[in-house]
Amino acid sequence: MPKNLQDTSTLYNGVKMPWFGLGVFKVEDGPELENAVKIAIKHGYRSIDTAAIYGNEEGVGRGIRAGLKETGISRGELFVTSKVWNADLGYEASLAAYETSLRKLDLDYLDLYLIHWPVKGKYKEAWRALETLYKEGRVKAIGVSNFQIHHIEDLMKDAEIKPMVNQVEYHPRLAQKEVHDYCKQQGIQLEAWSPLMQGQLLDHPVIKEIADRYQKSIAQIILRWDLQNGVVTIPKSTKEHRIVENASIFDFELNKDDMEHLNSLNQNLRVGPDPDNFDF
């Protein structure tokens, strides 16, 4: 069980990935984004998650540089993730996309590079590119995002290297138990995007009742639930008080009954696309 903001999950290849980080989905490139990244680093965050399609890698890079300068920590103490977009899924295209992301972020390497969506007929060649990057030491870890069990099994028919991470939509309304159990069995770390269901759970009466008993916010209860379920989580915020509040979840533990109560809220409801039926 993680005890503080810098605690890490050890991926099956030995790379250490922070349990908690900052997501920047739908945050526009600009001063607000840069400041959010800098503030997160200042307050102890060591993981930043972005993607090519977010259009904000340059701002994330500026925020990282500002955060490193202000805190004095080294690049090696950060865990930076980006993702290859659907239009660039292919061997040469994915290699080029990685170089573009590095250039925009102004980094020498990424800690984690993911295939963003399982586009049929394209993700295997993209994975071959990620394997090349990994074998060449250009990236510390590689993984997938939004992959269901059958996508991973199909990928592994031809792959040399198993994904180290699967980042999926994950929150109390979408617990993805089968995917979670499968990833545990395979030694693949599950990671949650949209852990707060894009804000839709922040007035949930059941979670509010639990939050009131622990004297915590609804967001803190949900994020703590993620960690106690063994799921890495990357909530998004640009406001300093929220960035601090989201990470203030290491001074309490949800009891077994409350964990089961939260688990029981699952209704297989998505706010994002269905990985088996999407069109980008």
UniProtKB/TrEMBL annotation:
GO terms for molecular function: oxidoreductase activity. Substrate binds at H116. Coiled coil: none annotated. The active site is at Y54. It comes from the Bacteria. Keywords: Oxidoreductase. Residues 31-266 form the NADP-dependent oxidoreductase domain. It holds the Pfam family Aldo_ket_red. PROSITE patterns: ALDOKETO_REDUCTASE_1 (PS00798), ALDOKETO_REDUCTASE_2 (PS00062), ALDOKETO_REDUCTASE_3 (PS00063). Signal peptide: none annotated. The record marks K83 as: Lowers pKa of active site Tyr. Belongs to the aldo/keto reductase family. This is Aldo/keto reductase. It comes from Cohnella nanjingensis. The lineage of its organism: Bacteria, Bacillati, Bacillota, Bacilli, Bacillales.
